[in-house]
């Protein structure tokens, strides 16, 4: 599995690149994880409802082809896009989502944060607050999009939406939970990649 560290890139061009990569894949194409940050943006999933966008202010709203409702991306949040051949790995979509949640739970556990996934409201939570969101698109057995993990970011823009379509859902971040003990973005990113690589099955 190839891990690409892309820095800060805009959402729309990244979405186009994921679609192009997925469309051009062959049965032998290596799976990839793209680790990156986005400038401030709200993205609406395929089932997104306009009423969940409350007060976007100056933050752009972009329609996406992933599953789920509206979420926010911004600096200080790691996004991991998982370009993965599910058929080749003999993994279904539900299993992939569970594996992504497990990776985030294990990342947070390295800093003593007790977190869990929720099969009824996918994502990762700490004491009822959402710290990581998930959304996938699968085309011909191959996934793109992935997960976002709040590390050390301004959480205020989440107030402009019902995060993931849940009214009143509180969000949190590693920095909010750990304060001055929050690890650096680079360290968290590398730990996230390590756990994703370890948990995602890759055939020989």
Question: How is the topology of this model organized?
Answer:
Layout: E1 2-8, H1 11-24, E2 32-37, E3 41-44, E4 61-63, E5 71-73, E6 77-85, H2 86-89, H3 93-109, E7 116-117, E8 124-126, E9 129-139, E10 142-150, H4 174-178, H5 185-199
Parallel strand pairs: 1-2, 3-4
Antiparallel strand pairs: 2-6, 3-5, 6-10, 7-8, 8-9, 9-10
Structure description:
The protein is of the alpha+beta class and 204 residues long. The protein has one domain: BirA Bifunctional Protein, domain 2 (2-Layer Sandwich). Helices cover 27% and strands 28% of the residues. The protein has five helices and ten strands, in the order E-H-E-E-E-E-E-H-H-E-E-E-E-H-H. It has helices at 11-24, 86-89, 93-109, 174-178, 185-199, and strands at 2-8, 32-37, 41-44, 61-63, 71-73, 77-85, 116-117, 124-126, 129-139, 142-150. The strands form two sheets. The chain has a seven-stranded mixed β-sheet, with helices on both faces. Strand 9 and strand 10 form a beta hairpin. Helix 3 packs across helix 5 (185-199). The longest helix has 17 residues, at 93-109. It is globular. The mean pLDDT is 94.
Shape: globular
Largest sheet: 7 strands, mixed
**Count of beta strands:** 10
Low-confidence stretches: none
CATH topology: BirA Bifunctional Protein, domain 2
As a whole number of angstroms, the C-alpha radius of gyration is 16 Å
Distance between the termini: 11 Å
Please give the share of residues in helix.
Answer: 25-40%
Order of helices and strands: EHEEEEEHHEEEEHH
Any idea how many domains? 1
Kindly report the spatial arrangement of strands forming the biggest sheet: 1-2-6-10-9-8-7
Q: In CATH, what is the homologous superfamily?
A: Bira Bifunctional Protein, Domain 2
**If classified by CATH, what would the architecture be?**
2-Layer Sandwich
CATH class: Alpha Beta
Count of alpha/pi helices: 5
Q: What is the overall pLDDT average?
A: 94
Coarse structural class? alpha+beta
Strand content: 25-35%
